[in-house]
Description:
The protein is an alpha/beta fold. It is about 35% helix and about 20% strand. Strands 3-2-1-4-5-7-6 form a seven-stranded mixed beta sheet, sandwiched between helices. β6 and β7 form a beta hairpin. α3 (about 25-35) crosses α4 and α7 (about 145-155) packs parallel to α8 (about 175-190). It is globular and about 45 Å long.
Amino acid sequence: MKDAAFRTPAARYLGPRYPYNFRPGQLAFLVEMLDGIGAIAGSIVEVGCFTGATTIFLSEHLRDQGRRRRYVAIDTFAGFLHDDVEHELNVRGKTADRELFATGFVLNNRSGHSDVELVEGDAATVDYRHFAPIAFALIDVDLYRPVAAALREIAPCMSTGGRIVVDDCRPDHAYDGAFAAYTEWCRDSHHRPEIVHGKLGVIRF
């Protein structure tokens, strides 16, 4: 019976699952970034949290270390916004990815954690000054417009010694809008781009 159960279509719900959109080395790097801000005042802001798996992982790490601090997770909880998708399709020419953008991340939910403050909103219009000073920010919203806006608005709120990590900083990829926004911000702000683990763009203040 056990063997039969694991051969059914429902088997993926019975066995161990890996719920993260980051590989183990990438998750370890995010933990390293959090550990590096131990003495720096400020909140943690996660922009784009999908189902909240990484949010819970990182907040549990902070709790385990006895280093609780304000942790804010921001998401539309409804997938990509129309104007952001239209920019990718019509300005950046990502027409081959129309269906992907239309359906991407529409399974977002509000699964919470007792140490996390959930904020429903657009990454491009949220007033990040409400969360300042910010010691660490993880920006994971993939498309050019929201990533560029989040970087522009979060940077002035960062504590000295704080860090920003931007996910999906890979060229020639469906979500290379994040890479374009990250490299553009680094160029305009005279920061040397630092991309680690294949896709994590780092900014150190």
